[in-house]
Automatic annotation (TrEMBL):
Cofactor(s) required, per the database record: Mg(2+)
The name this protein goes by in its record: Protein farnesyltransferase/geranylgeranyltransferase type-1 subunit alpha
Cellular component annotations (GO), alphabetically ordered: CAAX-protein geranylgeranyltransferase complex; protein farnesyltransferase complex
UniProt lineage: Eukaryota, Viridiplantae, Streptophyta, Embryophyta, Tracheophyta
Organism: Dorcoceras hygrometricum
This protein's UniProt keywords: Magnesium, Prenyltransferase, Repeat, Transferase
Enzyme class: transferase
Length: 135
């Protein structure tokens, strides 16, 4: 973390610092400063955000109730636009299959629907959930 603080203060935006943020996140995925600086670096390096979405997916699978991760995922989805709406809705369904009460996933799903679309299948999904929960 001392190394991270040094490159953060120097405002270094390089591939090695991007890798360093990944290592720092693996140690503490709740460190908001690391996530924020990672976003700055991603933009500066013009990194493929589809790859970043894969990285975040792997982190969420291990820590699905972490606000910072979901905030970062929303930032990525917002940058990628409506093309990822379906993918995000499928991902939240996966999270719900493990924990139907995950507030962060529900919040993310609502945001996706409001900002990126996907409403056309939502009523059918709600019916599916009601049938599962009524058994």
């Amino acid at each position: 973390m001392d190394y991270f603080r040094a490159v953060y203060l120097a405002d270094e935006r390089s591939p090695r610092v991007l890798q360093l943020t990944q290592e720092a996140i693996s140690l503490n995925s709740g460190n908001y400063t690391v996530w924020q600086f990672r976003r700055v670096i991603l933009e500066a390096l013009n990194v493929d955000l589809h790859e970043e979405l894969e990285f975040v997916t792997s982190i969420i699978r291990g820590s699905s109730k972490n606000y910072q991760i979901w905030h970062h995922r929303r930032w990525i989805a917002e940058k990628l636009g409506t093309d990822v709406a379906g993918r995000e809705l499928v991902f939240t369904k996966e999270i719900f299959s493990q924990d139907a009460k995950n507030y962060h996933a529900w919040s993310h799903r609502q945001w996706v629907l409001q900002c990126l679309g996907g409403w056309e299948d939502e009523l059918a999904y709600c019916d599916e959930l009601l049938e599962c929960w009524s058994v």
